[in-house]
């Protein structure tokens, strides 16, 4: 009997506890449905204070993205149309230092609310920014030519939404109640159009085109880069070589103080109101062994940087280039004199070997890209001797290996070795013809420095 009563009490207690637990769970569940509202995700205090200098906006220049201070390293198409080369970059996502959430909710992503916009500015003569829309053919040099000066700037702006992965609320907009300023960023694309062309001898007229669009038949080589010396003309050189740096229009060069900040062992400069002349005429440049040491003992060639400092603003422009191939006349006794010599192919080979340093007769593909044939012509491209320097003559390149004005055309034909044909052929500097003739014929020649 007592045992039965105990069992009844146990059952009653169990039912009571079960009911209590169920009711408690129901009450608890009902309470957790009411989500507790926390704080909105935010960008860091530093970014919010400077939301009008928003470094997560960026630009894509020739398929490379630049954000914030990275813009200072951008390679810009100074002498080429820029509109389709400079575009909006994808919105950069904030890192952990640029994002904060007091509730500890993890960053999801930052997004453009509607659309991002970009405005171009040039600077007028009163130093005021003026909004403009560049055409597809506009270059920084052409802007300067018509009085639309640098600095050239771009403003990027858009409203943003920041999302966290969890929490409520999980989004925050910019601008908002606390941050009234719209997110934006102004980038200085270019302080000054700078050097637009590097002009060596323009002749011969038979070689007035460029397959790679590097050459203008009236002004010379277009500046390829404002920072990368390896991309600019010239990459080849010789004693007596000379070229002019041209700004956007005549009269601008006199606004700068010009100097060589790197490379003065091989070059000197002079300037007038319109141009800056760069000359390979130093004692080291005339000495074949010294020139060989400076260029061939370096894995990266010999870099020269010409700098102009604006007399009013103090801002600088630069033209950098790197020489990787050095050439010399073949007759050791005539180096530095304003005339050429001639000889057979064998004599040219011997003359090159006898130069101080380490030289050999130049190969055809080092001098030009001309295919063999009567109607074959070389084109003006960066990377080969005549492709860069055109028709050598004493007026253009004083005291070089080029023929003097009173010397015949035979002094203007160069013996070269053709690695494909396995024979000695000659290139006419005055009309760009390249063909192979009898090796005993008397012609000029050229030597290449080798390691």
Structure description:
This protein is α+β, with helices and mostly antiparallel strands and 451 residues long. It has 3 domains: 42-190, no CATH class; 197-326, Immunoglobulin-like (Sandwich), CATH 2.60.40.10; 330-394 and 401-449, Mannose-Binding Protein A, Chain A (Roll), CATH 3.10.100. It has 8 helices and 28 strands. The strands form 7 sheets. Strands 16, 23, 24, 25, 26, 27 and 28 form a 7-stranded mixed beta sheet that branches. A 6-stranded antiparallel beta sheet has the order 14-15-13-17-20-19, with no helix packed on it. The protein has a 4-stranded antiparallel beta sheet with strand order 8-7-9-12. Strand 14 and strand 15 (220-222) form a beta hairpin. The longest helix is centred in the first third of the chain and has 31 residues, at 2-32. The radius of gyration is 35 Å and the shape is elongated. Mean pLDDT is 91; it is low at 1-34.
Instruction: Look at the structure and give the mean pLDDT.
Output: 91
Distance between the termini: 115 Å
% residues in beta strands: 25-35%
Number of domains: 3
């Amino acid at each position: 009997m007592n045992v039965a009563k105990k069992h009844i009490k146990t059952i009653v207690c169990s039912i009571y506890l079960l009911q209590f637990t169920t009711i408690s769970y129901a009450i608890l569940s009902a309470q957790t449905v009411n989500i507790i509202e926390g704080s909105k995700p935010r960008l860091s205090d530093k970014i919010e204070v400077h939301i009008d200098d928003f470094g997560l906006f960026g630009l894509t220049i020739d398929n490379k993205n630049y954000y914030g201070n990275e813009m200072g390293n951008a390679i810009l198409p100074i002498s080429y149309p820029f509109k389709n080369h400079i575009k909006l970059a994808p919105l950069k996502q904030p890192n952990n230092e640029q994002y904060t959430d007091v509730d500890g909710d993890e960053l999801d992503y930052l997004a453009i609310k509607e659309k991002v916009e970009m405005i171009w500015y040039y600077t007028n003569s009163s130093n005021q920014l003026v909004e403009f829309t560049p055409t597809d053919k506009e270059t920084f040099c052409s802007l300067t030519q018509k009085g639309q000066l640098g600095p050239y700037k771009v403003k990027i702006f858009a409203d943003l939404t920041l999302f966290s992965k969890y929490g409520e609320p999980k989004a925050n907009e910019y601008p908002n109640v606390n941050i009234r300023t719209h997110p934006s960023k102004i980038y200085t694309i270019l302080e000054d159009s700078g050097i637009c062309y590097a002009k060596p001898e323009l002749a011969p007229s038979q070689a007035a085109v460029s397959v790679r669009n590097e050459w203008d038949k009236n002004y010379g080589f277009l500046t390829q880069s404002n920072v990368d010396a390896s991309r600019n003309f010239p990459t080849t050189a010789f004693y007596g070589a000379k070229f002019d740096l041209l700004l956007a229009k005549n009269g601008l060069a006199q606004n700068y103080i010009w100097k060589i900040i790197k490379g003065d062992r091989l070059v000197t400069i002079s300037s007038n109101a319109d141009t800056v002349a760069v000359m390979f005429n130093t004692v080291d440049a005339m000495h074949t062994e010294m020139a060989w040491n400076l260029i061939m003992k370096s894995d990266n060639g010999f870099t020269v940087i010409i700098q102009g400092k604006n007399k009013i603003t103090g801002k600088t422009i630069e033209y950098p280039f790197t020489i990787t191939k050095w050439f010399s006349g073949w007759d050791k006794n005539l180096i530095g004199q304003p005339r050429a010599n001639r000889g057979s192919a064998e004599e040219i080979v011997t003359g090159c070997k006898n130069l101080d340093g380490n030289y050999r007769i130049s190969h055809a593909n080092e001098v030009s890209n001309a295919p063999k044939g009567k109607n074959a012509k070389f084109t003006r491209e960066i990377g080969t001797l005549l492709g860069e320097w055109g028709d050598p003559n004493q007026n253009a390149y004083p005291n070089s290996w080029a023929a003097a004005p009173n010397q015949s055309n035979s002094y203007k034909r160069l013996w070269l070795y053709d690695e494909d044909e396995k024979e000695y052929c000659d290139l006419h500097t005055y009309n760009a013809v390249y063909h192979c003739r009898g090796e005993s014929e008397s012609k000029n020649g050229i030597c290449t420095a080798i390691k």
